[in-house]
Amino acid sequence: MRSGWKAAGARERNHARRLTHGAPHLTLRRMSTEVVVFLAILVALALGVAIAIKRARRAELPPAKRAEKLAPPKPTPPLKERVAAPPALKPPPEEVTAERLEVTPPKEKPTMVPEPAVVRAAREAKPLKVGLERTRGGFIAKIGALFQGKKTIDPQTIDRLEEVLLTADIGVKTSQKLFESVKGQLSRDQLADVETIWDKIKEQSTAILDVGAPPLDFEVAKPLVLLVVGVNGVGKTTTIGKLAAKLTQNGKKVLLAAGDTFRAAATEQLEIWGQRTGCPIIKGKEGGDPSSVVFEAIRHAQAEGYDVLIADTAGRLHTKSDLMEELQKVRRVASKAMPQAPHETFLVVDSTTGQNAIAQAQMFKEALDITGIVLTKLDGTAKGGVVLGICDTLKLPIRYIGIGEKVEDLREFNAAEFVAALFDREGESKAA
Ligand SMILES: Nc1nc2c(ncn2[C@@H]2O[C@H](COP(=O)(O)OP(=O)(O)OP(=O)(O)O)[C@@H](O)[C@H]2O)c(=O)[nH]1
Ligand SMILES: [Mg+2]
Q1: Ligand 1: distance of its center to the CA of 274 in Å?
Q2: How many CA atoms does the CB half-sphere of 28 hold within 13 Å?
Q3: Which ligand is nearest to the CA of 381?
Q4: Which of 136, 290, 299, 346 is in Cβ range 3.0-4.6 Å of 259 for a Cys bridge?
């Protein structure tokens, strides 16, 4: 009985302990969990409301402002010059990678001192014939050999002339045209006379080379934007350097754009020309977007009053459509920075590649609006006859020719002058 009471007493005590200690502890823990859940719901609700308000405000913005808000922060302009850009300019119309561009002013004084045009012209007059010596040693020397020692020309020799022209790097169509003009337009008697045949060949060559384009005018726009394109290693950068020197010597303020972002060495090469000629360079990041560099360069040239902007580009195979599209984009973006830009697009071709140069020129012309050709390395090849093939096939004007690696070896092209130098047989026997 006593033990029964004891057990009952213990149950009572336990019950009392649960009531006095255990229960409040449990209640507190449950309460704090509920408070945390409640607070979390409150925070989530507040966040939801804040996002909804922000979206509603953005929806009220005009599309341009909205795009501005959504766009990533703009990179800090790298130079003070950028601040001076004309306010009316619009941003590039299509996706152009924003990148830090630099203007590299020449560190020292230019190494070339401007020289009066007359003095320069006199100094330049001689090398053309010398520079064309190798080409003269090609098909022209072969024709000379064919006529060698002959006072009159027989019909067999005329047929051999056709062979020589066909095997020269003129291109089949053009050589045929040249031959027909000689054979078809001369009488029997005239055909027998060596000098008359030479004259006819020269006359027809001049007619082919003169495609009737108006003379190159660097003053049609300020800045005149000149884009230089071509296959790898043809002489684009060298031509740009030489041309920058020429223009600077003629009193033009020239800016260069390092649009060959493919290799760091390409920019360095242009920088060396910049140092030599005293022309500043706009350059971008290696591997960056060339159209961005060209766009920035045009803006800079406009803001700083440059007369000419020459943009280099990376060499590319005419058969690579993606690379050709990159050039098309450069042209489109340039025209957004300045309507009509690029005003000139020069295709540089290496004459040592012979008839391949004609194929290159054809494909570049199809992809881009090429306005002129620069034919380089005429000093190092017997295949210079390709100049006839290019002009005849594409009807594009040759603007300059390269007859060496030096600055003065870039020569303005003039069909009559070129033909005279190429066919100049002074020193040879005229009876040949
Ligand atoms: N003999 C001679 N060499 C030339 C002439 N023009 C350019 N070169 C040389 O050709 C080589 C290539 O010239 P670059 O100007 O680097 O050619 P590029 O087209 O810019 O080359 P990439 O940028 O690699 O596509 C250089 O060694 C030049 O000195 C020329 O008229 N005559
Ligand atoms: Mg180059």
Answers
A1: 16
A2: 5
A3: 1
A4: 290
pLDDT above 60 for 133:
yes
The stretch 418-425 carries a mean pLDDT of 88
Asked if 358 contacts 208 with a C-beta cutoff of 8 angstroms, the reply is no
Q: What does the alpha-carbon distance between residue 44 and residue 52 come to, in Å, rounded to a whole number? A: 12
C-alpha 240 to ligand 2 mean position (Å)? 9
Name which of 365, 296, 355, 298 is nearest 327 in CA terms: 365
Q: Which residues of 328-366 are buried (b: 16+ CB within 10 A; e: fewer)?
A: ebbbebbebbbeebbbbbbbbbbbbbbbbbbebbebbbe
CA dist 84 and 82 (Å) reads 5
Q: Does 379 contact ligand 1 (Cβ within 6 A)? A: yes
- 3-class DSSP state of 402: strand
Pocket probe for ligand 1: among 238, 242, 373, the residue whose CB has the most ligand atoms within 8 Å is: 238
Q: What does DSSP assign to residue 286?
A: T
Interatomic CA distance for residues 351 and 380, integer angstroms: 9
The torsion region of residue 377 among left (phi > 0), alpha (psi -120 to 50) and beta comes to left
- Shortest-distance Cα residue to atom 29 of ligand 1: 405
- Position 247, amino acid: L
Output b/e per residue, 100-122; b: 16+ Cβ within 10 A: ebebbebeeeeeeeeeeeeeeee
pLDDT for the residue 13: 52
Query: Average pLDDT over the chain, rounded to whole?
Result: 80
Q: Where are the beta strands (DSSP E) in 217-278?
A: 224-230, 254-258
User: By the 8 A CB rule, do 201 and 194 touch?
Assistant: no
SS3 104: strand
Comparing C-alpha atoms, which of 101, 408, 117 is closest to residue 255?
Answer: 101
Ligand nearest to the CA of 315: 1
